[in-house]
Design goal:
The chain is 35% helix and 24% strand. The strands form 3 sheets. The chain has a 7-stranded mixed beta sheet with strand order 8-7-6-9-10-13-12, sandwiched between helices. A hairpin with a 2-residue loop joins strand 2 and strand 3. The chain is globular and about 50 Å long. With 294 residues, it is α/β, with parallel strands linked by helices. The protein binds zinc ion. The site of zinc ion has 8 residues, from loops.
C-alpha cells in the first residue's frame, strides 16, 4: 500500500465555517482524530474538518512545510502513483473518451491536470498526443517545469484565470479533499471546460469499507484532508456546479495485510458490487445550462 503523505499537525488559525456544499451550519460529530475533528453536515451529510484552518494557512503548508521532503516523497512513489492513476482512468472508460476527444478536436485535445505533482501523468498524456497543462502549488511544480519542460502553473486553479472553454479534459486526482473551497473549484472547472469536455475527480470515499472499518484511524482521515466525500456528496457538489454525472467508479476493499484473507476477499467484492471502494472516481460532463442562471 502506498503511504499517504501528511503534514504534521501544527498550530494554525482555524474557524468554524458554513457547510461548503449546502451552506448549512448545523453539524454532528463524525471523526475525532488527534489534533483535528471532522463533523457531518446535518442537512447534506458532507463530512468536513470544522473548525477549519484558513486558506492562507493551508497554502503555506504546501509551499513551506512540504518543502523538499514532499518532492522526494512524490519522486519515490512516482511510478506507483502513475500506475494507480492509469488503472483508475482505464476503469472510468478513458480509452473511448480519448478517442472521442481526439476525433472532436481539430488540433490536439487539451488536458489540465490539477494537483499534477511532478507531472508524470502529463508526460504520459503528452506522448499520446495531448496538449498538456498542469496546476501544482507545491515545490514539485518547479521540478516539473525545469526537469520535464512542462507548462505548470503554480497558483490555485481559480487564480489562473484561464479563458472559458480552455480544456477538453480536467483531471484532479487526490486533490479536491485538500481544498478549502471545493465548490469554487468545481464551478471554475465547469467554466473552463469546453462544451462536450469532461472532468474526472478521484478522492477517498468516506462511505467505503475501509472508512467504516477503521473510523478515525482510516488512512484518509489525515490533517491535510479538509473534506471527506461520499459518492452522494461529491455527486451533489458536481451537479450543483452544472455537471451531469457520467459514471461512478470505486476500488479497493481492504489493503493486503490489513485484514485476514477471508475478510479481505469479502471486502473487495463488496467494494466492487456496492461502491464501497476506498477510493472513488466520478466522471462528469458539463450540462447545457449555465449554473448561475439556475
Ligand atoms: Zn451541508
Amino acid at each position: 500500500m502506498v503511504k499517504t503523505w501528511s503534514t504534521p499537525v501544527s498550530a494554525e488559525e482555524s474557524r468554524l465555517i458554513p457547510c461548503n456544499l449546502c451552506g448549512g451550519s448545523r453539524f454532528k460529530p463524525a471523526l475525532k482524530c488527534e489534533g483535528f475533528t471532522y463533523v457531518r453536515c446535518a442537512r447534506c451529510g458532507l463530512v468536513q474538518m470544522n473548525p477549519q484552518p484558513s486558506a492562507a494557512a493551508v497554502g503555506r503548508r504546501y509551499q513551506d512545510a512540504f518543502g523538499s521532503d514532499y518532492l522526494s516523497y512524490e519522486l519515490a512513489n512516482e511510478a506507483a502513483f502513475l500506475n494507480l492513476q492509469l488503472l483508475a482512468l482505464k476503469d472510468a472508460g478513458f480509452d473511448s473518451l480519448e478517442k472521442e476527444l481526439m476525433r472532436r478536436t481539430v488540433e490536439a485535445p487539451r488536458v489540465l491536470d490539477v494537483g499534477c505533482a511532478t507531472g508524470s501523468l502529463l508526460l504520459h498524456l503528452q506522448s499520446r498526443g495531448w496538449h498538456v497543462t498542469g496546476v501544482e502549488i507545491s515545490p514539485a511544480a518547479e521540478f516539473a517545469r525545469r526537469e520535464r519542460g512542462l507548462d505548470i502553473r503554480s497558483l490555485p486553479l481559480e487564480e489562473n484565470h484561464f479563458p472559458p472553454a480552455s480544456f477538453d479534459l480536467i483531471l484532479a486526482s487526490h486533490l479536491i479533499e485538500h481544498l478549502n473551497d471545493p465548490g469554487s473549484f468545481v464551478r471554475e472547472a465547469r467554466r473552463i471546460l469546453s462544451p462536450g469536455g469532461r472532468i474526472c475527480i478521484t478522492t477517498p470515499n468516506i462511505a467505503g469499507f475501509q472508512s467504516r472499518l477503521f473510523g478515525s484511524r482510516w488512512r484518509s482521515a489525515i490533517f491535510d484532508h479538509l473534506y471527506l466525500f461520499s459518492v452522494q456528496t461529491l455527486q451533489a457538489l458536481l451537479t450543483g456546479a452544472g455537471f451531469t454525472i457520467e459514471g461512478v467508479y470505486t476500488w479497493g476493499g481492504l489493503a493486503a495485510g490489513a485484514a485476514p484473507p477471508r475478510l479481505k476477499k469479502i471486502a473487495d467484492q463488496a467494494a466492487k458490487r456496492w461502491g464501497w471502494g476506498d477510493v472513488m472516481l466520478l466522471r462528469g460532463a458539463p450540462c447545457n445550462f449555465r449554473p448561475t442562471e439556475v
